[in-house]
Amino acid sequence: MTSAKKYDAIVIGAGVGGLSVATLLAKEGKKVLVLEQLDRPGGRALSIQGKEIADKGLDWYKKVLASQFTYIADSDPAIEKILADRMLDGYTLDIGYHAISANGAGYMLDFEDLIGGLPEVAKHGAMYGNYFKGTLYRDVAGTFVDPQLKKIGKEMKIPFLSFYYEAYGLPEEEIDRLEKVSFQEWAEGKGITKSDILFDHLHSVGTLFSTINDPKDISMGDIFRYFKHAFGPKLTRNVLGFVGGFVGNGTMEWSKAIVEKLKGFGGEILYKSRVLEIKVDDAKVTGVRVETPDGEETFLADTVISNIPAQHTFKVIDRKYFPEAWSTKVESMYGYGSYAPYMGLNKLVMPEEEAKMGLKNTCILPKSEGYDYDVYICWNIQSAVDPSVAPAGKYLYTAYLPLTEKESRNPELVKKIVARLPEFMEEIYPGFKESIDWKLDLVCWKLEGVAKSINQAGTQKVPVRSEHVKGLFFAGDTAKGYGVAMDCAIASGVICAGEILGKDFGIR
Ligand SMILES: Cc1cc2nc3c(=O)[nH]c(=O)nc-3n(C[C@H](O)[C@H](O)[C@H](O)COP(=O)(O)OP(=O)(O)OC[C@H]3O[C@@H](n4cnc5c(N)ncnc54)[C@H](O)[C@@H]3O)c2cc1C
Fold it and tell me: What is the pLDDT of residues 275-285, one digit of tens each?
């Protein structure tokens, strides 16, 4: 019998949170093993080549989607025809819309700096804006402020720019307090609700950052903490020019590059290796039991980091090790889902400048249709920003429309939003429907692992170090971390590595 291999740390999951912690530990000289159930890194931030879907078939595609909490709600034409006619060939599809906050200049850049930079990954920046009553208002980006918004703010004496700048002067205790204050309440306090244009504009940005439709549930403290710590230091570095952007050739390229860094630091990664159990002895972790392509194996370590969304923790560790109140709280933390469609277009019917922007509307379907709140949309012609994701002469449209976890699983509400999207686009850009070659309607019920609501955001999430099992840690967008989804998972990975190593990496 061969003895089980021993590591300093084992990371369960190669999502962006798991890879961040693993790479930092390896860089600091730890012997690290990452175990990933899929054949590729990235987790919810993974990408698939359209050709690969047609080659491997619908069952394979559905399984990959399901492993990341996503399903195909509809398509046009039928998915079988889309694949048989190889309509997706030449496209790169992320699991749903996948923009990177500030084109990677948030916590992503802080992390990249910690591991010696990542120049090999291309990032394509985009400006964003929102439509309100037929007029386009541009988002604040770096020092740019839309003159129309500026004028309204000046004439009505509404300090709406506080949304962007107030955070920099706030002490941490005030940011902690504001975690439980909603965007709506904060905006009312500032008099921003006196202008529907200014309120809608900031609401559209608040939802972009939090993925929550209802302004009464968006945590203001989470946004402020993100602005102060992720963006603040970048203002002086002059790297904050874009609201968002896309990783070149799909979001997974970032994770693939991180895996190369990890290996360069001596770390190991095993794909198609699903952890079945975290082994615990005398309230201390001792290792993991894993299903690998070669059969079941055990790997030993005194430190195990779970990158699995925290609500699913008990799939790999017995809940008897945790107080019942803790387990119930973790299981009841809610995420936010999304309708995340793709469309292959044969021409662009909107002005070129708008095709290159991320465009938001705070209401594509009203609450009165049965939703928790008015449904918001943010869409891009991803290929206008990064041409590598569509074949020559074609265009890739991606969008995200936040839905609560419950709405994401409600067939009637999903059907309504799927039917509404082309009509909505046609209303703004006549001829849009005719430009669609194919449409694939994905829905995920866990875009955000834990919604950044006033009851759960930031410091209220699962701490990175388990208080109950020695050597057990958590990293990812459901553990302590801040800001937009991928950035939040990365921040949590950095916090987690700092906690394990007793080192301050600058994110706390
Ligand atoms: C449709 C969609 C759109 C999104 N859009 C954006 C966006 O525009 N911008 C943005 O910043 N973020 C976006 N996100 C969110 C972002 O992808 C996530 O917040 C982030 O990737 C979460 O990373 P994570 O490390 O926390 O977890 P995950 O990505 O969930 O990683 C967990 C990993 O663990 C693996 N795993 C699970 N169980 C096991 C096991 N037992 N054994 C081994 N491995 C296991 C999984 O396969 C996965 O790789 C989107 C997500 C979705 C689904």
Answer: 999 999 999 99
